[in-house]
Amino acid sequence: MRSGSRLTRLVLLSAAVAWLSRLSPWFCSFQLVHRCFLGGPGQARTLQRLAQVRGDSSRTQMREAPLRHDLDHTTSMREAPLRQKLDLDDRVRVGTLDLPRLGIGTISWGLRGFGGITDWLERTVLRQAGAVNSAEAVVLASLLKGVDFFDTAERYGNSFSTAIGLGYGETEQLVARTLQDVSMSAVVATKFTPTPTRTTVESVVEACEGSRQRLNVEKIDLYQIQMPDIVQPFARIPGAPEEWSKPKDEIYWQGLAECYKRGIVANIGVSNYGPTLLRRAYAYFKSQGVPLASNQISYSLLYRNSGAQKTVDVGKELGVATFAYFPLAMGVLTGKWKSDDVFRVGPVGEPTNPEHSGKSTLEQTEIAEYAKQSFQLLKELERIAKARGKSVAQVSLNWIICKGAIPIPGARTPGQVADNAGALGWRLTSAEMASLEAAADQGGCEFSGAGFKRCNSKFVGYGYEEWALE
Ligand SMILES: NC(=O)c1ccc[n+]([C@@H]2O[C@H](COP(=O)([O-])OP(=O)(O)OC[C@H]3O[C@@H](n4cnc5c(N)ncnc54)[C@H](OP(=O)(O)O)[C@@H]3O)[C@@H](O)[C@H]2O)c1
């Protein structure tokens, strides 16, 4: 009787996992690691090592959820033989952090399944039943490649509440949970979101404390302000006092400085700041004796104008590192869009490129347009990639690295991580760089994002709020 009900539970659980695996391409992550990443002669040995890393004892230990720093001593022994060591040229100092010259973006990790149901099932029922975490394969793939830096934000997640700004931290929790599950450490950067209701220094400290708890660390490695204070609903109300729409950037800077001084963050950064605001923030933090470590902006072969290149240059002058988001123009610069294929237009809403994508139809439709406008650049990327024996994504990311910025490409699968990590270990020549830039200029396309993900505007319920780097 008892074994019958256990069998029923097992069958139901398997059915749930199979169903969810259709929703989430990362589910059953070992299968994916096996298929996308670990094939070849070393496969059996590597799988054995992975099994060691994921030993049952470590899982039990992780369930107790100790602070990550408590784990460092024990985990370093276990992970030592696994990680690929990056060349010194492929590592860079940002504030107190020793980072790879390429990180991993986590924005698409949370976009799974029906407004949060998949995430909820995963972190409750399935986790208790011992199923692997859906981000595990991606995290393992990056750590094995020596890429031990993840960028997240309190606003990344998949529930409806997160999307409209009422919920926080789903992806932060997913990152922390996954690092615990694989018993490995990594640098994790997160972000504070300016909102009309966050009006005080203490509101920044509170938000930071929330992120710190969700990330399960003593100190956040890098705490960034996600964007200038552009969400100003009162500015649209005729007659509302100007005072109500005064940007709170300086209050947020004070808040960040306070977090730093209280020792709950190790480094601070900003994001979506153009040259002028970056200089102002830098001067403010300097006056407080707090080093500004980084600025995160959209920067790629398809987004160099509109103030992006100037921002990178000012960052260099001030000693503030630039992290490049949208480095692959949400897939345009990865090789999945072929130069001789982009004009084969499908029915409205259908991607012209048949390759699998996690992007929404809305996003894919816009991405297809960008790809068309960039066909000269795609041609040049393909030419250089072929001549160098690299992939298009690797050439695109390498261009950013050569420019002195740190790309943080988003990755949905271990295969994408492995491909993107191949941007490290070599450099384009200046002639190749120049020909890529010339090809990009020919198309004249500036990639400002797709769907609701934009680098110069934000959908905030009552409409779009905009900003510019210049
Ligand atoms: N500070 C900010 O305001 C801000 C704003 C946006 C993003 N970010 C950060 O920047 C990170 C990167 O941005 P993003 O993920 O939106 O854009 P992205 O890095 O330009 O594009 C990532 C997407 O390209 C595809 N891809 C990645 N590697 C690939 C490969 N090797 N081959 C084929 N396809 C590949 C995947 O999409 P498919 O689903 O099509 O496979 C992936 O989701 C984010 O994760 C986030 O951490 C910050």
Task: Describe the protein's topology.
Elements: H1 2-23, H2 29-37, H3 43-53, H4 56-63, H5 68-79, E1 91-94, E2 97-100, E3 104-105, H6 113-128, H7 136-144, E4 149-151, H8 160-163, H9 170-181, E5 187-192, H10 201-215, E6 222-225, H11 249-261, E7 268-271, H12 275-287, E8 292-298, H13 308-318, E9 321-325, H14 361-373, H15 375-388, H16 392-402, E10 406-407, H17 414-421, H18 430-443, E11 449-450, E12 453-454, E13 457-459, E14 464-466
Parallel strand pairs: 3-4, 4-5, 5-6, 6-7, 7-8, 8-9, 9-10
Antiparallel strand pairs: 1-2, 11-12, 13-14
Helix pairs in contact: 2-7, 7-17, 10-11, 12-13, 15-16, 15-18
Bound molecules: NADP nicotinamide-adenine-dinucleotide phosphate.
Residues 105-108, 151, 226-227, 271-272, 296, 325-331, 334, 336, 357-359, 393, 408-412, 416, 419-420, 453 line the site of NADP nicotinamide-adenine-dinucleotide phosphate (NAP).
Major beta sheet, strand line-up: 3-4-5-6-7-8-9-10
Counting H and I runs of at least 4 residues, what is the number of helices? Answer: 18
Question: In angstroms, what is the radius of gyration?
Answer: 22 Å
Per CATH, the superfamily is NADP-dependent oxidoreductase domain
Mean pLDDT: 82
Number of domains as seen in the coordinates:
1
**How is the quaternary structure best described?**
single chain
- Describe the main β-sheet briefly: 8 strands, parallel
What would CATH call the architecture? Alpha-Beta Barrel
Distance between the termini: 71 Å
From the 3D structure, determine the CATH topology. Answer: TIM Barrel
Bound molecules: NADP nicotinamide-adenine-dinucleotide phosphate
| CATH top level class name | Alpha Beta
Helix-and-strand structural type: alpha/beta
